[in-house]
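anyone seen this seq b4? input:
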Amino acid sequence: MQLQSDLPALEAAGIWPVALSYDSPATVAAFAAERGITFPLLADAGSVVIRQLGLLNTAIPPEHPRYGVAQPATYLLGQAGRVERVIVHMSQTVRDSWPTALHGAVELRANASGPVVRHEAARVAIAVSLDSATYAPHQRVGVRARILIADGAHVYGRPLPPGYTPLTLTVAAPAGTTVEAVAYPPPTPLPLPALGETLPVYTGAVELSAYVTGEGVREDVTISVTLGWQVCTETDCLVPQTVTVSLPLRYRP
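predicted toks r here
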């Protein structure tokens, strides 16, 4: 299990994992002993807590042997004991890698995150990365593109009239790998008197996200990421640019 093998990195980031199962205490204890799991595993026999959290998988009928199982979910609790983030997957097989589940919530050490490729161009600095260096079957890994735009400059968002180039992220992965739609943050409307228009733009620091899931592959893969943009000021624009980088993602059974 990724949580167990990466337990030192989690603890170094101040994260203490706890897992909850609908199985009996004896079954949970046997599972932990067999897999060498040292972090706490909690038994929710009868799915009492699972029901209280609203996570019971109601698609499984009561007469089925797996009745009582929960929808896959991750709860992130802060130091005060309050729930800071909830991630629920409707698929019984899909799980976030733990760096993806924690993305933006905690600062991880460099050796706990995935590969990063950096690129500098006129008035922008770019970092393209994966949340994790490895993936397991049906595990969801975040793809991030962070763009730092120089003061006084902007790149365009969407929607745009013809003739303008928006900030665009394209992610390509091998067959058997699912790529989710890119999540773009909302741009800010910017009046441009010289053009007589108000257009959607990004300034400062921007992060774009997509997610890949290894559905039918059981081998190391390469994720190809292409970023396109056009840097402008209120009076002029540079030539549109693109950069394509390759990020390795190792398979971990």
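The chain has a mean pLDDT of 89. The first strand starts at residue 19 and ends at 21. kinda curious what u guys think
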